[in-house]
Specification:
alpha+beta; nine-stranded mixed β-sheet
């Protein structure tokens, strides 16, 4: 994957971007497809509490995947709440791309470990996590916990737990919005 305009990650026609209110309907549809056993209230709760830590993956105008995380209870740990790829885009590298983007993002924020839970019957997700370097913790139950150690690369001048904000933060945000409007909406 290569970085595109305005710091967005691109692979072919894939675009990784933040989550805005105008994405809600498409995100809710993907969420229901990937997690039919969960309610939209759970997604709404997670997004309200970790909107800045939710990334979407687009192929053209189509939302094809997303992830959402939050800082864990232990220092330096991030908990991956959700990751999903649309059914018709699975086995095309999008899941791996989302996990790579997650690694890059949280390491830049100074975190050193990613943890997640997965149902032990979800063999597709388990294969993805293991191929991407995640290790299972030896615990019993219907869900397994996986983790991955990453090398933190904190940005200079960053406050504890806060994302980096350079002097051009506002301009970058507006440039991303403009790029999104040009590439996705038109």
């Amino acid at each position: 994957m290569a970085l595109g305009q305005n710091g967005e990650r691109r692979e072919g026609s894939l675009i990784f971007s933040g989550c805005g209110y105008f994405h809600w309907r498409r995100l809710a549809t993907l969420f229901q497809e990937a997690f039919p056993f969960l309610s939209l209230n759970e997604l709404s709760f997670v997004l309200r509490n970790s909107k800045e830590n939710t990334r979407l993956c687009f192929a053209g105008k189509d939302l094809v995947g997303f992830y959402s995380y939050q800082p864990g209870k232990a220092p330096g740990v991030v908990w991956l709440n959700f990751i999903a790829v649309r059914r018709d885009y699975r086995n095309s590298g999008i899941g791996k791309g989302l996990l790579e983007k997650l690694d890059e993002e949280v390491s830049q924020k100074g975190f050193s470990r990613i943890e997640l839970a997965v149902y032990k019957g979800n063999s597709t997700a388990i294969r993805l996590y293991e191929r991407c370097g995640y290790t299972r913790l030896p615990r019993a139950g219907e869900k397994w916990t996986y983790y991955k150690e990453i090398r933190p690369r904190p940005t200079a001048g960053r406050d504890k737990g806060e994302p980096s904000r350079g002097p051009f933060h506002i301009l970058r945000k507006s440039s991303r919005w403009l790029a999104y409007r040009i590439l996705v909406l038109f």
